[in-house]
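FORM 7B: Structural annotation worksheet

SECTION A. Query
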Amino acid sequence: MSTVLLAVIAVILCVLFRILNVNSQPHKPLIYGRDKNFIENILFIAPFLSEPYIPTRLWGFSGHVQTILHSLIGRVRCPWPIGARIMLVLPDRSTLTYDLYEPVGAEHEDDVTVAICPGIGNTSESVYIRTYVHYSQRHGYRCAVLNHIGALNSVPVTGSRIFSYGHTDDFSYMVENLMEKYPNTKLILVGFSLGGNLITKYLGEDRKRPKNIIGGISICQGYNAIDTMVYLLQWQNFRRFYLYIMTDNYRNIITRHKRMLLNQDLKIKYNLDEKMIVSAGTLPDLDEAYSRRVHGFKSVTELYKWSSSAFYLERVKTPMIFINARDDPIVPEALLPNVREFVSSYDKKMFLELAHGGHLGFYEGGLLYANPVTWLDRAVVGLVGGLLMAHNKCSPKENIETDCSISDEEPDLIKSATILYRDPLDKQHKCNTFPS
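SECTION B. Predicted structure
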């Protein structure tokens, strides 16, 4: 065998074992939380959450591949769910749209609406949103998907702004409109990436919210924008590459609507320099040139602090479930201690931490071709059902005390789950399985 051929084989093996991480094995999600009854109810509806997540064998153990495939290709054989587009004109003259999808197939005794907030610059037309909506519809849930202002090519910007990292009013307007249409529906909020930050901040803000909201699910958010940017500005694990892509996408949205966003009046009002905006190389540069000025902040740091859900977590009283992957190249593991501590300190909170999945990937099954429905699609539908069950079991009826726990006659489904909880009197985390 020639030296060249040996070198080629060595390179291929290096790629497989270092980049694709094929020597890794499936792991069970780590489940953080202190509320035994709440976690029992969630796992009773979605017992597979305590089982190993098995990524696609040849490439699914790489967080980079999962993230890139999610961004470039999306889900396999993605459906186009049929819905109606709702248009709202806001007080600041901005045009807000959201898409509404009625359930198909299975029917629930409860009227449940899943209010979805997509990731940065994403909409109801994004592939991962379409797949989840279609899967959720078929399980009997109505879905409403916020379209971030400026993100849809077909909807012009009519106000002086687009979406931002922490502006929750747009999501609030959608929720209020849903309440007008379906006053008796039970609302569960689901946010992906930036959307996860927005729904968490919305639930922790000092604002009026409908009593119909029974739970929230946050997926792959970074929690603290200040710390997130510190990591994204580093080249380690190619994070600077992802930051460049996000910056380019955000800048393209601004320049696409520059006739409205960068007209002469707004340039004078907000002291905007179009050359600085177009030449911005990173999100902090772009936020300095545009975002913090339009939204009235003295500095980018002030904008990021206002935008970050980490500073609102302790005021979130609604039942919440968080999901992150440790191999997410955009949200590194170093950003996760806050949410671990939070769910371990408050009732009706839960954190699913996966070893693999990347950023919004979570493809599963197969050797090369993944299943058309991802682990994340299945998980979020299961979590919605779990939140609904936990709410119904714990809702008092006719002043009768309600037992929120699983009855002895029902099977114990969490014996094999790796659950990390914290005794309120003990500052050290313990790894254990709840006793039956």
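SECTION C. Observations
The longest strand covers residues 95-101. Residues 398-402, 423-436 have pLDDT under 50 and may be disordered.

SECTION D. Sign-off
Analyst initials: ____
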